[in-house]
Amino acid sequence: MRATVGWIAGQQHADGALPWSRGEQLDPWDSVEAAMALDTGGAHDRAVAAYRWLQGRQRPDGSWASEYRDGHETAPAAESNHAGYLAVGAWHSWLTSGDEQLVTELWPAVRAGLDLVTRMQLPGGAIGWALRPDGTADDTALLTGSASLFQALRCGVALAGLLGEPQPDWELAAADLGTALRTRPDAFADRGRFSMDWYYPVLGGAVTGVAARDRLADGWDRFVVPGLGARCVADRPWVTGAETCELALALAAAGQPEAATEQVAAMQHLRHDDGSYWTGYVFADDARWPVERTTWTAAAVVLAADALSGATGASGLFTDPAALPAAGTADGRIAQERSTSADSLTGGAGTVLP
């Protein structure tokens, strides 16, 4: 894992940008995932640089472009999953590093992004996948993106509690979204051939317990290729490393760590000698495709390894849906710490950071 984290760090640009690989495109969601891997591997300064790069390019409405190259927007469409995912990265960084300064610094960007997400929520609870040119939400919702946003909203609620700035609108949005993910499949576009739509409601924490295990069992034979990993698309002979490791996270969340470990082991045929990982493998042709090694694939491996080994304070973020606070239970620890610091000058008492 040290080699893999080192490879991810080697793809980062001097200004902090963390693209798919050096000189290639960058999208905000995958950049956050790669930054989480850096924090997991102890490269906190590099993770901070990646988060600051993203913060500096957030638009006034809370969105980001869906793609950047060399610091410039190359695909300007604003997608809801990009707007929300910084909350997951910020909470993950807090769990791994306890960096109060970074959490406080990122909070305005997290808040703007999640405020946009709540504005993009559709009747029925699903989240529109993108903004139209007039600034309204597209009325199409994607299941994978909405499941990711369920986790992002809950991380945002946790951050809000940490800072003593409750966000009840996010709590309500998360509750409605969770209900939609569990009970309203017709609220989302039909993309059932993609494995992410199969496991992401479990990975994002909306579907838990027996329902999670049943959901994963129902799609197992359709998506899992024994000894190789998980297909990206059900009707293609193509397994991908990121989807396999995300499936492993979902399996761990469903209380099946042995099956999760088997999947991480199965995809190791994608590992390169330098610690990086190929994106995928077309087993019908015995060919790697696409011919690329990406930071987000490597990051998925690192996050799965952490979740299964319990190596960092963030290891339960993806595998323990109960680890995030329920609505209304956040405790404002950073805010209380600030009060404690002030009280110490006058003999007062307060709560300290863990």
Automatic annotation (TrEMBL):
SUPFAM superfamilies named in the record: Six-hairpin glycosidases
InterPro entries per the UniProt record, alphabetical: 6-hairpin_glycosidase_sf, 6hp_glycosidase-like_sf
Record GO biological process: carbohydrate metabolic process
Superkingdom classification of source: Bacteria
The name this protein goes by in its record: Prenyltransferase and squalene oxidase repeat-containing protein
Provenance organism: Blastococcus tunisiensis
